[in-house]
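Researcher: I've been going back and forth with a colleague about how SMC-Scp complex subunit ScpB might be arranged in three dimensions. Neither of us has a model we trust, so I'd like an independent prediction. The organism is marine metagenome, in case that matters for your notes. Sequence below.
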Amino acid sequence: MNEQYVHDDHAFEINKVAGGYQLVSRQEYEHFIRKMLSKSGRLALSSAALDSLAIIAYKQPIGRYEVEAIRGVDSSGVLKTLLNRNLIKIKGRDSGPGRPLLYQTTNKFLEHFGLNRLSDMPKLKEITELMEADPTLGEQIVVFEENEPDDTNIDSPGPEATAG
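Model: Here is an independent structure prediction for SMC-Scp complex subunit ScpB. You can compare it with whatever you and your colleague have in mind.
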């Protein structure tokens, strides 16, 4: 089928990945696709935001202090950014001391990453196998840095924090 796609000058090809198949754009179109995606804002997340979002996605519901314990740095500014972009929302409060806010992902998170449900996220074992099969995979991830600092305080969420 790939030979036919090349012959017909299609912009995509089929790759065998993790025991299945994946329809992807051809390498020669990468520049145009990255340009288009960066304009749409789809990939405009800092590495700190992606780290925090991954932690929340896999451990939700989770409090800010737990995110910070995993990341090793203050994450309040990143969480504010993720709240403002409606990728996460406040689920409620923990029953522990101080009753900290708990965060979880939103439907916009699922849409942003092309997931139908949270169970569609890759398992750690799958990610490890992909990285072992292609060590350059991590180098292919594009991250656009944001201008927002990571240390903005979000102890009192605004109305946008509860939307979604």
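Researcher: What would you highlight for our discussion?
Model: I'd start with this: The first strand starts at residue 12 and ends at 17. After that, consider the following. Confidence is low (pLDDT under 50) at residues 142-164.
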